[in-house]
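Need a sequence for this fold. Nothing fancy.
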């Protein structure tokens, strides 16, 4: 089976899990095979995380889909992603926000950030900016954001990320160490924090990240 067919099978499976049409369309447009290392390409449309080097992984497609579903991304939105990894998840969000929107994505590992820039150049995304730095502090320069997506597990919600979220904005973030839960944060006069499901992410590093000895 070719990549297109494998991708269609994967999308059909995700559809059964209540993923919305716009998110399925975005997943369909992004060639995941261009975001994984050569030796992993044949698994590109398996619904699992895959190694991208440096002990890090590209998230499983269903996890990207669930997070995008919860965020309810609309055209023209400004989005912050913490943890670029391969750049795949950023590309899916870039499809959702469209040319009139923008995705700023922060990666703390210089080599991964460089790889992601190359992956995004190959796949011709022009509405994504990759920044090397500590995303646990957010990215003040382009704040506030309509949506924030965090792809590494934090010990608790980093206060700068709440500050940098627009009123009415939404954020998804995994919280915990060995056992983690995905949270949806909706910022309003009274910020709502809802637990959504159990997940497994690599640890968030940096100032508001996990203390790793
Ligand atoms: N969304 C990615 C997968 C992310 S894996 C994809 O689609 O491929 C999590 C990433 O978060 C790793 O690359 C890791 O290096 C990065 N990371 C961990 N702590 C970080 C921090 N404080 N700031 C920025 N990136 C961080």
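Here you go.
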């Amino acid at each position: 089976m070719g990549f297109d067919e494998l991708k269609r099978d994967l999308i059909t499976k995700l559809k059964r899990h209540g993923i919305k049409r716009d998110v399925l369309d975005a997943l369909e447009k992004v060639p995941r095979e261009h975001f994984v290392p050569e030796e992993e390409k044949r698994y590109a449309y398996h619904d699992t995380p895959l190694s991208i080097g440096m002990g890090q992984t590209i998230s499983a497609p269903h996890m990207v889909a669930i997070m995008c579903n919860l965020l309810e991304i609309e055209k023209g939105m400004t989005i912050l992603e913490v943890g670029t990894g391969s750049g795949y998840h950023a590309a899916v969000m870039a499809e959702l926000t469209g040319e009139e929107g923008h995705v700023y994505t922060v990666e703390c590992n210089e080599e991964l950030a460089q790889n992601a820039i190359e992956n995004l150049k190959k796949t011709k995304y022009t509405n994504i900016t990759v920044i090397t730095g500590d995303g646990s502090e957010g990215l003040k320069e382009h704040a506030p954001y309509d949506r924030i997506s965090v792809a590494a597990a934090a010990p608790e919600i980093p206060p700068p990320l709440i500050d940098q979220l627009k009123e009415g904005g939404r954020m998804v973030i995994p919280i915990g160490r060995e056992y983690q839960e995905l949270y949806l944060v909706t910022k309003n006069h009274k910020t709502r924090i809802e637990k959504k499901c159990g997940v497994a992410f690599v640890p968030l590093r940096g100032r508001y990240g996990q203390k790793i000895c």
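For context: The longest strand covers residues 165-176.
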